[in-house]
Amino acid sequence: MFKKILIANRGEIAMRVIRTCKEMGIKTVAVYSKADEESLHVRFADEAVCIGPAPSNESYLKPANIIAAAEITNADAIHPGYGFLSENSNFSKICEEHKIKFIGASPSMIEAMGDKSTAKKTMQKAGVPVIPGSDGLVPTLEDAQNIALEIGYPVMLKATAGGGGKGMRMAKDPNDLMKAWEVARQESKSAFDNDDMYLEKFIEDPRHIEIQIMADSKGRACHLSERDCSIQRRHQKLIEETPSPFMTKPLRKAMGEAAVKAAEYIKYEGAGTIEFLVDKHKNFYFMEMNTRIQVEHPITEQVIDYDLIREQIKVAAGELIKGKNYFPKLCSIECRINAEDSENDFMPNPGKILNLHFPGGHGVRIDTHVYSGYIIPPHYDSMIAKLITTAQTREEAINKMKRALDEFVIEGVKTTIPFHKKMMEHPDFISGNYTIRFMESTEV
Ligand code: MV4
């Protein structure tokens, strides 16, 4: 087992990893930027190293600084959390070269899944359902228009370097597609320096349902059931829940088996997530694979009683998994509390937290790095806490969430708490009858 893990991240996820390391008797090293000197992860880790000024690209995104911190502290592994360098193949490779275990995917795996057209082809070969569309990249607009006529409009044009919605455009007809072709390629060129495109049938009003998987170095994988992440705004998730209210036993079995097949086919190792779009007929299609721990991982932990970070560390250290799949025994919901004014177009609202009171009680979990007097820096993402409630039934989990949101006091900054309070009363949320279009089609 590792003796010392460096956490190449900040905020709640740095705290989350430190907590499990402590429970496992593993020493921890925090890294922090100048803006995070007063951060909790710095205080809770055994050691802390400053890795640069506030801007991410001069600190948390700088491989050389992080590797230097690992070397001077003698860390034998690096946990990247999510975001930052967690899916950076170059960083994964640099860790390998320095004989520091990267608790994440291998460089080739990150590359294979980062290129969306390649990832899709690979999944198709593995026997996982994919969205009908072009066979790989589409070289010209004429090709795109020919394929669109074959599969039928509306279509979705996607950047292979994209993901998370960047470089993606829907088209209803050939004229639309001509415009989409220019806009999507331009967007992808400037964001990723790559304008390669592929084309798909547009799936109307789907749900975003993802399957958590865990795999070991012997190529064995298991799934840990689903999370429904359909409540998103501009590709930022706001609420996640498990089980999905849309899920059925046979669908969970089929999606779970597809995810395990995918992971075993590519010889995946570690924690991963296979994202699917699920249409109203309950057809499911591979969308993307995330080769990292995700923000919303706690709801899975809550319903199957499983520490995902612990298992991630154990698998990285060479331990084998049992191989059995996990099915939800409880219902869990996560509300992301962001320092944003949800009454004013979710405008970021960093600043000092003047007064703070956390909800508590049975079935309430809060993953956070903030405290009374903490100054939320403007340089990073605006999520300041995850409020997670867990109960026997979905209705109880919702009632518990309402109660917890009412107890939650954060003064000094605007947050998304008012939004979540309204959501917990919204008939379409309560009924579980929502899709990825919820935020654009509904007044909350
Ligand atoms: C789609 C789609 C409809 N049809 N592909 C959004 C981000 C990227 N991961 C893929 N995305 C989508 N791909 C086809 N063929 C709709 C979306 C989409 C979406 C997916 C999941 C969650 C929220 C979304 C919001 C808008 C669009």
How many domains comprise the coordinates?
3
CATH architecture of the largest domain: 2-Layer Sandwich
Query: Which blocks of ≥5 consecutive residues have pLDDT under 50?
Result: none
Side-by-side strand order of the widest sheet = 13-12-9-10-11-14-21-19
Furnish the topology, listing elements before pairings:
Elements: E1 4-7, H1 11-24, E2 27-33, H2 40-44, E3 47-52, H3 63-73, E4 77-79, H4 89-97, E5 101-102, H5 107-114, H6 116-126, H7 141-151, E6 155-163, E7 166-171, H8 174-192, E8 197-201, E9 207-215, E10 221-233, E11 236-242, H9 249-265, E12 270-278, E13 284-290, H10 297-304, H11 308-316, E14 331-338, E15 340-341, E16 347-348, E17 351-352, E18 355-357, E19 364-368, E20 375-376, E21 383-391, H12 394-407, E22 409-411, H13 417-423, H14 427-430, H15 438-441
Parallel strand pairs: 1-2, 1-4, 2-3, 4-5
Antiparallel strand pairs: 6-7, 6-8, 9-10, 9-12, 10-11, 11-14, 12-13, 14-21, 15-16, 17-20, 18-22, 19-21
Helix pairs in contact: 4-5, 7-8, 12-13
